[in-house]
Amino acid sequence: MTRIIGLTGGIGSGKSTVANLFISKGIPVYIADTEAKKLMETRKIITKITKVFGNDILVNLKIDRPKLAKLVFNNPAKLSELNNIVHPEVQKHFKNWLKSKKNFPFVIKETAILFETGGNKQCDKVITVVAPQELRIKRVKDRDKVTREAVLERIKNQWTDEMKISASDFVIENIDIENTKTKVDQILKVLNDL
To answer: Is the entire prediction scored with pTM above 0.85?
Structure first.
């Protein structure tokens, strides 16, 4: 049976960097956020989202992502409603993806809100990526061209690093890429020996 290794971390921690390091080692990695974005372009999800958020969330029959983000990031109830639409679909998609990876001893499932959605309960082990908050803020500001306040707002909607660390099997402090590569190799050795 293929084991599921959760990979998570707060916004700007460097989950994608770590995910890419696992991919470079030949490990299948499911990027939940990327798949969620694709699923949000399907007619089924668009219909469900417009039922909750109204038709003015659409531009050219597609979800206006920045508009939707503004609505949900300052409103935990709306964020929860959106998650209740998208996450079950991502779960179904992941299960189908996993079937195609049954020849691998384990796969990585990368998701920002693994603990927040209870997804950690479906994982055999969990890896959390952390970085100092100021570095995370700088990374997200540079990447997304957003304000410091916007980044802090997103951080506020996620579990703290301390909470994630206490519930994780492995922690990668992602400050220096060489140290991160070394840590990924060490974790792979442990996972391969399980």
So the answer is: yes
Q: Which CATH superfamily is domain 1-28+105-194 in?
A: P-loop containing nucleotide triphosphate hydrolases (3.40.50.300)
Structure tokens belonging to residue 25 = 């080692």
Are 112 and 9 spatial neighbours (Cβ–Cβ below 8 Å)? yes
Q: What residue ranges of the chain are covered by domains with CATH 3.40.50.300?
A: 1-28+105-194
Mean pLDDT of the chain: 93
Structure tokens at 96: 């189908």
CA distances from 154 to 112, 113, 137, 173 (A): 11, 11, 10, 20
CB 13 within 8 A of CB 175: no
CA distance 95 to 100: 9
Residue among 137, 136, 140, 145 nearest 174 (CA): 136
DSSP-based three-state secondary structure for 127:
strand
Per-residue pLDDT tens for 119-174? 999 999 999 999 999 999 999 999 999 999 988 988 887 899 999 999 999 999 99
Secondary structure percentages of the chain, helix, strand, coil, to 5: 60, 15, 25
pLDDT band at 175 (very low <50, low <70, confident <90, very high): very high
